[in-house]
Protein 1
Amino acid sequence: MTYLHMIGPWQIIILITILFLIGIIPMLIALIDVLKNKFEGNNKIVWVFVILFLNIIGAILYFTIGRSQRIKNK
C-alpha cells in the first residue's frame, strides 16, 4: 500500500530511533567522562545532575564548560 509519498509507520519508527540515539549517545559519553575523572568539591555530582536532567543540553554544557574544571592528573 502506498501512502502517496507520505512518511509511513516504519520511517517514523526509524526517525524516532535515530533522534533518540543522537540524544542519548552524547549524554552517555559525558556521564562516563564525569565519572572517570576527578573534580574539586561537589562539582562531580553537580555535573552528573546537569547531564541527567538537561540531557543533550547538559552534555553540551559539560563538553564546553565542565571539562576544563577537571583535576589534571600529574
Protein 2
Amino acid sequence: MSTVAEAAAAVVGTVAFSLLFGVPRRFYPYCGLIGGAGWLVYAGLVKILTTPSAALAATIVVILLSRTFAVRERCPVTIFLISGIFPVVPGAGLYWTAYYIVTDELALAVRTGFLALKVAVAIVLGIVFVFELPQGFFKFAAKKQVQTDDKSNIP
C-alpha cells in the first residue's frame, strides 16, 4: 500500500474515531487532517529512523497541530489530540504481543511487547514536550476579533 493511500486511510480512521469519541461535526476535517499528517510523518520517518523515533516525531506534529487548532477554534485540545493520535498508537504491537504469548512464542512476544512499550513511551514524551510550550507560542493561530463601529450602546 502506498503512503498516500495509508494517509487517506488514517484520515478516514481518524474521522471515524472522532465520530465514536463524540467530537462535534464541525471539527471532523481538523481531526482528519491531524491524523493524516501524523501518519504521513510516521510512515515517512519509519523508513530511516527507529520505530519509536518516528512515533515521537509524528506525536510532536500531532500535538503541535492539535494545540494550534484548539487555539484557532477556541476549544479543548483533547478534541484533536485523542482523535489525531489514534493512527500512531501501537495497537498492532499489542495484538501481536498477545498473539505470541498465546502461541507460546515468548521470545517474539518479548520483542514485540518491548517495541510497543517503547512506542508508547515515545508518544507520552512527545505529548509532554509539546505541552510544555507556553500558550503564547500558539497565539499566531488565534482568530482575529472583528471590530464593529456600533455606537448604539454608547450612553
Protein 3
Amino acid sequence: MLERLNEAMAYIEERLDGEIDAAELARIAVTSEYHFRRLFSALAGVPLSEYVRRRRMTVAGAEVLSGQRTLLDIAVRYGYGSGEAFARAFRAVHGVGPGEARRDGAALRAYPRMSFRLVVEGSAQMRYRVVDKEEFRLVGLKARVPLVHEGMNPAIVAFLKGIPKETVARIEALGDQEPRGIVNVSAGLGDDRSEGVELDFWHAVATGADVPSDLAALPVAAGTWAVFESSGPFPQTLQHLWRDVFTQWFPSNPYRSRPGPELVQTRISADGAHADAQLWIPVERAAA
C-alpha cells in the first residue's frame, strides 16, 4: 500500500504544472477516490487539494524568484487564468505577493514533497470487528458544528448541554439495534478534514421505529461496518482512535472506507476524565 501511495505522490510531482486527476491518483493507489482522499488526509494531516496547492506554490515561488519567466507566464503555467488569481493564491501560501517577492527578494515558504514510510511501533493493540447491517435510520437531533481535531469541541458541548434530559431519554428509548444506546454521528463531511471545516453532528439512536415529528432522521443504506473499541483519557482516546484507524488499520487490512456517516458511542466516567469508546466506520472490501 505504501509503495502505491508513493507512486501517487510521484504522479502529483510530475503534474504540478498541469491537471491532477484525483481519480487517477486513486487508480494508482488501487483504491477508491473517496478512500484515497480520506486516507491521504489522515496520513498527511492536510486535504489532498491543500497539499497540491502548497506544492504548486512552492515550485512557482522558485520560478518567481528566478526571474526567468514573467509573472503572467508563471500564473498560466500553474493553472491560473489571471495574474490576480495567481497573486491571491501565492499570497495565501507565502504571505507576500509574487511581485513583491520578485522585487524585494522576500523569504518564501517551502513545502517539501511528501512521501510515506512504514514505522513499526507494535505497542498498541486495536480491537475491532466487521459487521454487516441492513438499512436503518438514525433518529435524534443534529447541529452544524466545526471540526476540532484535539481537545473539547465547544460547539458540540453547547449543543449537547442544550438538549433537555427528557428529550435524550425519549431518543434513547427509540433505539432497537446495534450500536445500542445513544451515538454521536458525524455526517455531511467531505474529503476536506482540516480544522474548522463544518459537519453535521447528530445525537441519535439506530432504529427502525417511526420518527416522532419533533425529531430528525438520517436514512443509512445497508452495508458493512468496521467497529473499533478503545478505552482511555477523554477526549484524546476517541480522537486518537479515529486517527489510528486511518493511519494504521486501513493500510494493513483488505478494506477501504466508503461514503456514509461515522458513528461513535462513548461512555464517559463520572469525573469526565475517562472514556470507553466504540467507533463505527462504513467500509467495503478493497480491490485485490
